[in-house]
Amino acid sequence: MTQQIFDAALGIQSPWYISDVDLNTDTQVLTTKIDFERGYRFAVDDVPDQHPAHDTIRKQYRHLNFFQHECYLDVRIPKVKLPDGTIRQVTPEWVGKLSGFTLLFEALVMALTQQMPFRAVARLVNISVHRVMAICERYVDQALAQADFSEVTRLAIDETLRAKGHDYVTLAADMDRRAVIFVTEGRDASAIHRLAEDLKEHNVDPLAIESVSIDMSPAFKKGCGEALPNARITFDKFHVIAHASKAVDQMRRIEQKTDPSLKGLRWTLLKHRDGLSSKQQAELDHLISQMTTKRTARAWIYKEQLSELLNCKQINVLHASLNQWSMNVMRSKVEPMKEVARMIRNNFEGIVAWAQTRQTNGFIEAINGLFQASKRRARGYVRFKTTRTVIFLIAGKLDYDRVNPHMKN
Questions:
Q1: What per-residue confidence (pLDDT) applies to 324?
Q2: CA 213, 304, 175: angle at the middle one, nearest 5?
Q3: Which of 405, 384, 403 is nearest to 144 (CA)?
Q4: Which of 71, 116, 171, 323 is the most buried (most CB within 10 A)?
Q5: In the Cβ-directed half-sphere of 150, how many Cα atoms lie within 13 Å?
């Protein structure tokens, strides 16, 4: 009965069987010895027929814990001699992708690392943090190699800070699935060229990309124009309004040097009106009433006008309204907002495209936020490879069950 329980618990099937079980209560380690049936012939990948064992080698694999005991499988692995004289080692179906682990143990590690820092997982399962990272990197690489992105036509591209010293990585995500499909070092035009090459490797013609949402980085604009020539570039409303809000605050900082009444109004000017207290709303209304004498008030009104304009869905109306808004701002004396007007003129078509595509980088910026939170918990990541792996674990939505069938659930 005990033998049957262990067979069922470990999922051992013919030709494999449990030859012995050793429970060390002092070290809390359970070692299960596994052998194979005498005379059994084994199949080998890419070689026809089945072949008898020629030699054996003992290997140990970490398995899921047996109650509070760490469990190891001590397996007698056969080697077979092929017709051409070469010797090949048989790989049991439950052996993991990384040496020394079973598939079930690796599935547990992968499930934990999607919720916890690597070091916390390493402490929980009692293996080194380097082995935990190696498992995750192997699974991400294999799942990504098998991924098919042939249906991708709309992209969102953004950068995030990897480490101090302006060390950035560029992320590209499938706009429809809200999933990261590519991560590379740097944030220049060459990053977009590397994206285009990676798309080809995953059954996507770069010419088939119809639209891409990016920030107003000249490097990204240049890269998209060269590597994704058919993609319509969109600069979403929220990036534009962020620049306008910054201009309002800059105007307030300049003007408060000679007008102390503007001190303490920063968040009153930057928050949405619905989020203001009654006192803050009264302060804002009082400031707006002085728009003829206070440039900060005019800057706030320009920002609100711009926000309202960008809600327009008629591209011809938006086109004319933005031109008029830019002209009005350039005739004013609100210098920081003039920079916004120049930026809009330099990126006019991409901003107008928002009226039709309504593409936004909001979700990919949320992914960036999740990565930054993970980085803080882990006290930073030294290698780019680790950064890439973490981002895919967080937001890659990769199909790991094609790598390990135990990860279906």
A1: 95
A2: 15
A3: 403
A4: 171
A5: 3
